[in-house]
Amino acid sequence: MTLPHRDNPYSFDQFLTRRNTFDYYRDDPFLRELVQKYSGDQWETLHQRLLEFSPRVSYRWRDLADNVARPEVLPRIQHYDGHNHRIDRIARPRETEILEREIFSQGLFSARTTPWEHFVKRFLLHQNGEFGVMCPLACTEGLIVLLKYYPDHDTPELDQILLHCKEGIDGDFGIGAQFMSEIQGGSDIPSNLLEARPDGKGYRLYGSKFFCSAMQADYAVVTARVTGSDKVGTFVAPAWLPGDKERERRNGYVINRIKWKMGTSELPTAEVEYQGAAAYAVGPVDRGVASAVGIVLTLSRLAVGSSSGGAMLRAVREALLYGRFRDVFGQKIQQFPLTARQLEEMAEAAQRTTAGAFKVYDMFLRQGRKLQVGLKSDEPVEVQKQRFNLRELILMQKISTAHECVDIIRKAMSIFGGHGVMEDFSSLPRLYRDAAVHELWEGPRNVLLTQIYRDLQRAARWYDPAEFAATVLNGAPGHQVEERVAQLNELLKKPVLSVPNRASLMAAGEWESFCGRFFRVYQEQALREVGGEKPTINESLTNE
Ligand SMILES: Cc1cc2nc3c(=O)[nH]c(=O)nc-3n(C[C@H](O)[C@H](O)[C@H](O)COP(=O)(O)OP(=O)(O)OC[C@H]3O[C@@H](n4cnc5c(N)ncnc54)[C@H](O)[C@@H]3O)c2cc1C
Hints:
This protein is α+β, with helices and mostly antiparallel strands. The protein has three domains: about 15-150, no CATH class; about 175-285, Beta Barrel (Butyryl-CoA Dehydrogenase, subunit A, domain 2); about 290-540, Butyryl-CoA Dehydrogenase, subunit A, domain 3, CATH 1.20.140.10. It has 16 helices and eleven strands. The protein has helices spanning about 15-20, 30-40, 45-65, 95-105, 115-125, 130-150, 155-165, 290-325, 335-365, 380-415, 430-440, 445-460, 465-470, 480-490, 500-530, 535-540, and strands spanning about 75-80, 85-90, 175-180, 195-200, 200-210, 220-225, 230-240, 255-260, 270-280, 325-330, 330. A five-stranded mixed beta barrel has the order 4-5-9-7-6. The relative contact order is 0.10. The structure holds flavin-adenine dinucleotide. Flavin-adenine dinucleotide binds near residues 181, 187, 188, 441 and 446.
């Protein structure tokens, strides 16, 4: 019998203690297992480094990240100083500035950080969301790889930019951004209108970009058309020319405004007007779309896969902990079959997504981290096929994981009941809003579904789609592979990309479901390869 109690003694502290002391790496047997499997003989050193790194992510940086998306600290812009100088100063939350300094100074792109160390550290960081730092990290990686891809230039400034971003100069690490989207269509980079006017050895940029994230960055990869040309090139524009950062004198551009966004709100995304900014061409000025898509966007898309895995692991773990803690109608939430089943399904999705992200990254490393600009190259056809496999997996991973992540975080929030939508009860509402952004940036779903279809059609002359499907799904149960191969062959004969009519609408729907199911078979196989019988997150927490 329950009697009245004036001083209700209810407390969440037991849940909070467990949640807040959880170390993202040390306390997650599944993640440790994955790291051990993939890092091979580097494991011992890596394990030690991660044990040192993880507490910072799991406690200090987590707490800082939780404070950045509050409405009262959203990024703001001050256009003029008190003496009528145009400065376009971006004011960001103090927590983001601290996070940025501390995380960038880890030298994640430096030669002293091994590729697996880089990947797993970023994976751990993704559990905190905080795109004020994670977006510029992805952009900086794109800038570095682009500069390394085109080393033969006569521009010492580009070497300095590479050094600044990769190894740091006097302890200061350069930050990159990527400005491609214009008002008339972000997906359609070939329709860019921004002008790059030749000026001596370099160029001057004129025109506008409509989605410019990481506005605090030191350098931006900018796509533009050279004066008189109908082709788009890729350029690097410094935010400030040497010596001007301290004086707050920007390099020939103004920031019109900072956008008001539903997610990644701590990240300043702006609209920019170039008025003669100095810029340097990177790679052939008529192959900018291929460079931007094949290198810069591909890396950002790869990051979406691990970001989705990281966010899901965190959301599901916290839902599991809450399910173990919270009593309703006299029993723990997790003891209701309805909840237990949902938790199990969520845990499987989080692990499957994470295992898939590790497997795709492993393929990237096995290919020497070399990305390809365009579909074809001079390499032997077997190597081209491997590069094609990676390209398509990255596209499929981007759309599948970004889509599922929103769903899984929403389900995790529902385990918390009304507390699930309270911004100061957990980080889940923030992660949920950020996940919605993942579906849109770095290529929205339909653009990538189209790209995969076109790639398979174009490559069919030298790479049979059936061979592609069987190779990528190698190891999965035979009947699943055969089914996907047959479906793919059928779908490539259907009017998926033609004009809208009954038949093409049906085919388009089938294509969308096919891509989701195809990548899921890949992820399930990745999960099996971790050892299959490993405890799920659910069991490992229950068995403590
Ligand atoms: C928070 C945020 C930050 C961003 N930051 C940056 C940034 O820093 N730099 C940058 O360059 N961009 C940035 N973007 C822009 C982003 O990359 C674009 O929004 C995206 O490329 C889509 O462009 P769009 O918004 O103009 O949509 P559109 O290109 O107009 O697309 C609208 C719809 O049409 C569909 N569509 C387009 N083409 C096809 C096709 N061929 N077949 C079928 N459907 C199609 C799309 O799927 C979408 O549903 C950011 C976006 C967001 C949300």
